[in-house]
From TrEMBL:
Domain Xylose isomerase-like TIM barrel: 21-190
InterPro entries (alphabetical): IolE/XylAMocC-like, Xyl_isomerase-like_sf, Xyl_isomerase-like_TIM-brl
Identification of the protein by name: Xylose isomerase-like TIM barrel domain-containing protein
Coiled-coil ranges from the UniProt annotation: none
Length: 279
């Protein structure tokens, strides 16, 4: 099994062509970015990916951004999903990462929504996986495990940092059996969270060693599961980001670290971690 690293464009403001040059210089293999909704921007991005033979993971949101429209019911989310998957197909992504649903829906509604979302994804012919994310349906592990029990065909992007802050603890108690989830993870977004936030100031800091160790053990469990499932390639996107995730100093509002440096650090460390395990 081979590990491929993808660079997130979350928080990136320079041209995509520059991001591509930087990620190749850092030894990354591809790019993960939001679906451009503007047609001209989407065409230009598709050309950049095609001309540079660049692997791409497409991220999209149902109704309509990271935080869903609260009044939107499942039908509106599903219509938005079908429309955006049509647009995503123009970019020929490796697969589509979906932030879907709403944390406020009751369980029966969640089950129905994901069952219908799976049908739409299958009809589009695109491989899709659903990301664990606060404010969305998969905001905590216990709802997710119940969805798996009823819809075992679900596949996931694991960003377990969201669950750490939602549950306000590292999920390393003997009662925290996440095996059914681990066995269905397709893609990893690698950010280190802690009990009071989704992103530590710097994962190399010794005061965050326990949080880093927990996340790395989770990622290792995913890799071992994928190897057992016959994966030839596993994908990981280091995803330290802005928007309140990156810590800033009070009064000066200066960031405590550089995002690309953080993501390169995580990427290089996980490349070494993977090679120690699998050669």
């Amino acid at each position: 099994m081979r590990l491929e690293l993808f660079r997130t464009l979350w928080g990136y403001t320079a041209p995509r062509a520059q991001a591509l040059e930087e990620l190749r210089a850092a030894g990354f293999d591809g790019m993960e970015a939001r679906l451009p909704l503007d047609a001209a921007e989407r065409r230009a991005f598709a050309g950049l990916l095609r001309d540079n033979h660049m692997a791409y993971i497409c991220t999209l949101f149902t109704a309509y951004d990271v935080l869903p429209k609260q009044a939107a019911q499942p039908d509106e989310h599903l219509e938005d999903l079908a429309r955006k998957l049509d647009l995503a197909a123009e970019l020929q992504p490796r697969f589509v990462n979906l932030l879907a649903g709403n944390d406020r829906w009751p369980l029966a509604m969640q089950v129905d929504f994901f069952g219908r979302a799976l049908e739409i994804a299958a009809g589009q012919g695109l491989a899709c996986c659903f990301e664990t994310h606060r404010a969305r349906s998969l905001f905590n592990p216990w709802v997710t495990l119940e969805l798996i029990r009823q819809l075992p065909e679900l596949r996931f992007t694991s960003d377990i940092s969201h669950w750490v802050v939602t549950c306000e603890r590292l999920l390393d108690d003997p009662e925290d059996d996440l095996a059914p989830f681990v066995e269905r993870v397709h893609h990893i977004q690698a950010r280190v969270g802690y009990d009071q936030g989704p992103q530590v100031p710097h994962p190399a800091a010794p005061e965050h060693a326990a949080a880093l160790d927990f996340h790395e053990r989770h990622w290792e469990a995913v890799w071992r599961s994928q190897q057992a499932r016959g994966y030839a390639v596993t994908t990981l996107t280091p995803e330290f980001g802005p928007d309140g995730y990156l810590h800033h100093l009070p009064f000066t509002d200066m960031p405590v670290a550089d995002l690309w440096s953080l993501n390169q650090w995580i990427g290089q460390r996980q490349r070494q971690h993977f090679h120690r395990l699998f050669g």
